[in-house]
Amino acid sequence: MDEKIILGQLEELAQNLDIKIRYESIELEGSYYPGDLCRLKGENILIINSEAPLTDKIEIFARAVKQFDLDQIYIKPALREFLIKNH
Predict the structure, then answer these.
(1) Predicted pLDDT at 44
(2) Res. 11: pLDDT tops 80
(3) CB neighbours of 84 closer than 8 A, spacing ≥ 6?
(4) Taking the mean position of all CA atoms in its chain, how far away is CA 58?
(5) Which one of 23, 46, 58, 64 has the lowest number of neighbouring Cβ atoms within 10 Å?
(6) Which residues contact 35 (CB under 8 A, 6 or more apart)?
(7) Are 50 and 29 within 8 A, CB to CB?
(8) Confidence band (pLDDT; 50, 70, 90) for 29?
(9) What is the DSSP track for 9-29?
(10) Measured at the alpha carbon of residue 40, what is the angle toward residues 72 and 13, in degrees to the nearest 5?
């Protein structure tokens, strides 16, 4: 499956899980930080480094959504298989 399609489906899944998505330019001196899921004022927020490569963005989304119970949520079969195989 195309990485852009995977990212789009992961974004949609995150939104369905009530995860707020924020793409930010993250600059840390001397290090690289692609982003992560955090909880702020009772909301789940996924902060993604807007400069991160597509593969890193996919990894961050996959790691974040897998923290939730996905058994009762419809996920396109190809995306569910991707999450099971790769993360």
Answers:
(1) 97
(2) yes
(3) none
(4) 6
(5) 23
(6) 24, 26, 46, 47, 48, 49, 52, 56, 57, 60
(7) no
(8) confident
(9) HHHHHHHHTTEEEEEE---BT
(10) 30
* Beta strands at 43-49 and 19-24: parallel, antiparallel or unpaired: parallel
- Tokens 């996905």 found at: 70
Q: Which residue has the tokens 């995150």?
A: 14
The average pLDDT across 10-18 equals 96
Share of the chain above pLDDT 70, in %: 99
Q: DSSP for 29-56? A: TTB---EEEEEETTEEEEEEETTS-HHH
CA distance linking residue 24 with residue 34, whole number of Å: 10
Distance CA 16, CA 65 (A): 10
Query: Considering only CA atoms, which of 24, 15, 5, 17 is closest in space to residue 79?
Result: 5
Strands of 43-49's sheet in order across: 19-24, 43-49, 35-40
Amino acid, res. 71: D
